[in-house]
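Lecture 7 notes: from sequence to structure.

We start with a single chain of 330 residues. Read the sequence below before looking at the structure.
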Amino acid sequence: MEFTFKLDKSSSQTKLQQLIHAINEAISSGVLNEGDFLPSVNKLSRESGLSRDTVFKAYTTLKQRSVISSTPTKGYFVSHESFKVMVLLDDFSAFKEQLYSSFRMALPENYTVDLLFHHYNQDVFEQLILNSLGRYSMYVVMNIQNERIEKVVRKIDPNKLLILDMGKPANQEMAYIVQDFEQAFYNCLEQGLDRISNYEEFNLVFPESTPHPQITIDTFQRFCGEKQLKHAVIPRIKNKSIERGQAYLVIKEDDLVYIIKSCKRQGLKLGEDVGLISYNDSPMKEIVGNGMTVISIDFEEMGQKAAHFVESKHKVFETLPPKLILRGSL
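Now the structure, written as tokens:
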């Protein structure tokens, strides 16, 4: 099947970006296969209405990216089937590394992946999305907000987009694999009730700056109220005295480290004097002390499911429930 191009005058992309995107899309969808020839610069310019300079720049860009090659006598051809994926994560951490490694290992070798981070910075997030438009076959994006999908994300073709971890879309245009921060989280707390009840007080350490969904606080307070547990939500744990008989649910890693250090300094034993639950598992948490009790989804599973979507292009709408993994810290 011969490649053809039609300019979309209503698009926010430049003519050059549209052509590059169209060729990448033709390769990823099977319209163009390895070894297939593209129209000559003159022919494509004549049939599309684009200038020869624009067509030449597009071919040169794709050649620099090793998507196409050329010979002096035959022209431009697809050098190999290339599928380029953008993965935009919020930040880098041990469990995000698990997710990404699992995702990358589950993809075929002819998929290239650009890994980027927005660090919850709105301007950075928007710029990275805008700069990516038309450059990738598929997009895997961790949204900034859990309550809404950022407007700029809607500029990505929903057939090529997967929302990951946070920000369940209100409609089914966008595929998603996200966490359940409400009922499944409540179920985890309920499964640990016997151990939590061994302590006089149960505290949630929830910094004001954390991007973790606010529904966590509501669910925590509902659980403690229904189980008649003395409890508190602590926005800042630093410089707070850690005392015997307290149990903590911790979101951020540095707060976790603070509590562990405080216990060691005071001779308090985790799992007996002080209880500790951490959000999100990692290999290190399996061996810290007698093991850290966690509430976590399986990030390797999330990575594998994301890779399956990218390769198959079959939309997925899935909410993964976190699980309670009981270890020695509670």
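The longest strand covers residues 83-89. Keep this in mind for problem set 3.
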